[in-house]
From TrEMBL:
The keyword Iron-sulfur does not apply. It is found in: Membrane. Residues 1-425 form the Major facilitator superfamily (MFS) profile domain. Residues 448-472 are annotated as: Disordered. This is MFS general substrate transporter. GO terms for cellular component: plasma membrane. It comes from the Eukaryota. Belongs to the major facilitator superfamily. CDD domains: MFS_Tpo1_MDR_like (cd17323).
Length: 472
C-alpha cells in the first residue's frame, strides 16, 4: 500500500504545477502542457505487461524492490530535468516503474490470502489507499509550485519515496513456486544432494519462453478472455474520466469560481472522502454476505455474488457524481455544491474497482498478476489519452453537457457486472486459463491423496519439493 501511494501520487504530482512548468519552459501548446501527466500514464501502459508476468517468473519481491529503486531514481531525475523533453522522458521512465505495484499487488494478495473473505477485505483497503496519492498530489503541487518552484514538487515526491524504503526493505517473497525453489536450493546445500528441485526449477525458461508465453500472457488474456476484456473496458472508461478531472476541475473551480490553484486542489478532497466511505460500504456488504453464507442462502454459493454487487452500487453512484458535478457548476450555485459531487464519484469509482479487480483475482488465482496487468495497462491507455479531449470537450459542449456525456457512457458500462452475474460461470467454464487452474487443482489434490495413502519410498533420483515436503 505504501508503494502504491507513491505510484499513484506520482501520476498527478505535476497537475497543479503545469502553469509554472509551462512558463518555465515556455510551453504554449495546450496539448503539450498535458504531457507531464500523460507520459507518466503511458509508462503505466508498458509496465503491467512487463512486471505482472515477470513477477510470476521471478517472484514478487525482486520485481517490487527493483522497480521501486528506479522509480526513486527517475523521480529525482524529474526534479533535475534541464529541459522539457528531458522532463517528459523521465516522467515516462518513472511511470513505467511506478506501474509495477499496481499490477503485482493483486498477485501478492492472491499469494497471501487463500480465504476469499480475507483477501477481499485486504483488497478493499488497498483500493481505498490507491486514491490517497492522486488526491494529495494536487495539494502539493498547487501550494508548493507557486511558492517555491515546480522542481520542489518532485523533491517532495522524492522525500516521500525515500521514507517509503524503510518498510519496503522488509517486504517478503510471497509467490509459492519461487518460495519452493528457494527451499529446494537450501535443501540441495544442506543435504549435499544436487538432485533436489522444485517444480518451478524444472519449467522451461529463457528468452524464448519469456517472449512467447510469459510476457504475452496479459495481452492474450485481454484479447481472448471475455471476463478480462469486459472488465478492462469498464475500468478504462472510469479511470480515464478520473484523470480527465485533473483538466476539468481547473476549468470549473478556477474558471467559474475564480479559485487559486492551491484552493482548487482542495476540491479533490471529497473524492478521497468518497474513497474512504467505499471501504465502510464494502465492510457492510461483507458482513451481510457472511451472515447470508452462515444461513446457507443459495445465492451465496455463486462466485459472482461475492463481490459483483459492490459494482451494482458503485456504478450508479459514479454516474450520479458526474451529473451532479455538471449541472451544479455555475456561478449562481456555491462552489461547495459541485465540490461535494466528488463524494458519490469517489465512492462509486472505488467500489467498481473493488468489485471487478477482486473478481479477477478470485477467477484467475496464480494468473491474477497477469490479469491485473492487462487491466492496469488498458486503463492507463485511457488515462493517458482521454485528458487530451477534456478541454476541447468542456469548451465546446460546456460543463453540464460534457459531464453528462461522460455520465451516459458510464451508465452504459453499468450493464457489464450484471452480464457477469448472469453468464459468469459459463464464461469461466470456457476460459482456457480457468480450465488450466481447475485441472491443476485436481492434479494437486490427487497427488496429495496418493501421498497420504502410500508409505514414503526411499529411492534414488530427482526429488521434487512441493506442498511443504519432499515428493520422491
Amino acid at each position: 500500500m505504501i508503494v502504491v501511494v507513491n505510484s499513484t501520487m506520482g501520476s498527478s504530482l505535476p497537475s497543479n504545477a503545469i502553469p509554472v512548468i509551462s512558463d518555465y519552459f515556455q510551453i504554449i501548446s495546450p496539448s503539450a502542457q498535458i504531457l507531464p501527466i500523460s507520459m507518466y500514464l503511458f509508462g503505466y501502459v508498458m509496465g503491467p505487461f512487463l512486471f505482472g508476468p515477470l513477477s510470476e517468473a521471478y517472484g514478487r519481491r525482486s520485481i517490487m524492490i527493483g522497480s521501486f529503486f528506479f522509480y526513486t531514481i527517475f523521480t529525482m531525475a524529474c526534479a533535475l530535468a534541464p529541459n522539457f523533453p528531458a522532463l517528459l522522458i523521465f516522467r515516462l521512465l518513472v511511470g513505467i516503474n511506478a506501474s509495477s505495484p499496481i499490477s503485482v499487488t493483486g498477485g501478492i494478495y492472491a499469494d497471501i490470502y487463500n480465504d476469499p473473505v480475507t483477501r477481499g477485505r485486504a483488497m478493499a483497503v488497498f483500493m481505498g489507499a490507491t486514491c490517497v496519492g492522486p488526491m494529495t498530489a494536487p495539494l502539493i503541487s498547487g501550494f508548493i509550485a507557486p511558492a517555491l518552484s515546480w522542481r520542489w514538487v518532485f523533491w517532495v515526491g522524492l522525500i516521500v519515496a525515500g521514507a517509503s524504503w524503510l518498510p519496503l526493505l522488509w517486504l517478503p517473497e510471497t509467490y509459492g513456486p519461487v518460495l519452493l525453489s528457494h527451499r529446494a536450493a537450501r535443501l540441495r546445500k544442506t543435504s549435499q544432494n544436487p538432485n533436489i528441485f522444485a517444480p518451478f526449477d524444472l519449467e522451461k525458461k529463457g528468452w524464448k519462453q519469456m517472449a512467447t508465453v510469459t510476457l504475452t500472457r496479459p495481452l492474450r488474456m485481454l484479447i481472448f478472455e471475455l471476463i478480462v476484456s469486459a472488465t478492462c473496458i469498464y475500468l478504462s472508461l472510469i479511470y480515464g474520466i478520473f484523470y480527465m478531472y485533473f483538466q476539468a476541475y481547473p476549468i470549473i473551480f478556477e474558471g467559474i469560481y475564480h479559485q487559486s490553484p492551491g484552493i482548487a486542489g482542495l476540491m479533490f478532497l471529497p473524492i478521497g472522502g468518497g474513497a474512504v466511505l467505499s471501504i465502510f460500504v464494502f465492510l457492510w456488504y461483507d458482513g451481510f454476505l457472511r451472515r447470508a453464507q452462515a444461513q446457507h442462502k443459495s445465492w451465496t454459493e455463486k462466485e459472482e455474488s461475492r463481490r459483483l454487487p459492490l459494482a451494482f452500487i458503485g456504478g450508479p453512484l459514479l454516474v450520479l457524481g458526474l451529473f451532479w458535478l455538471g449541472w451544479t457548476s455555475r456561478p449562481s450555485i456555491p462552489f461547495y455544491v459541485p465540490m461535494l459531487a466528488g463524494i458519490p464519484f469517489g465512492t462509486g469509482f472505488v467500489l467498481v474497482f473493488m468489485a471487478l479487480l477482486n473478481y479477477l483475482t478470485d477467477a484467475y488465482d496464480i494468473f491474477a498478476a497477469s490479469a491485473m496487468g492487462a487491466a492496469s495497462g488498458s486503463r492507463s491507455v485511457a488515462g493517458a489519452v482521454l485528458p487530451f479531449a477534456a478541454k476541447p470537450m468542456y469548451n465546446k459542449l460546456g460543463v453540464p453537457w460534457a459531464s453528462s456525456l461522460l455520465g451516459f457512457l458510464s451508465l452504459a458500462m453499468c450493464i457489464i457486472p450484471w452480464i457477469f452475474l448472469w453468464q459468469g460461470q459459463r464464461l469461466r467454464d470456457r476460459s482456457r486459463f480457468c480450465i488450466f487452474l481447475k485441472e491443476k487443482k485436481i492434479k494437486e489434490l490427487e497427488e496429495l491423496e496418493r501421498q497420504r495413502t502410500r508409505p514414503r519410498a526411499s529411492t534414488e533420483g530427482v526429488s521434487r519439493v512441493g506442498g511443504g515436503e519432499e515428493k520422491v
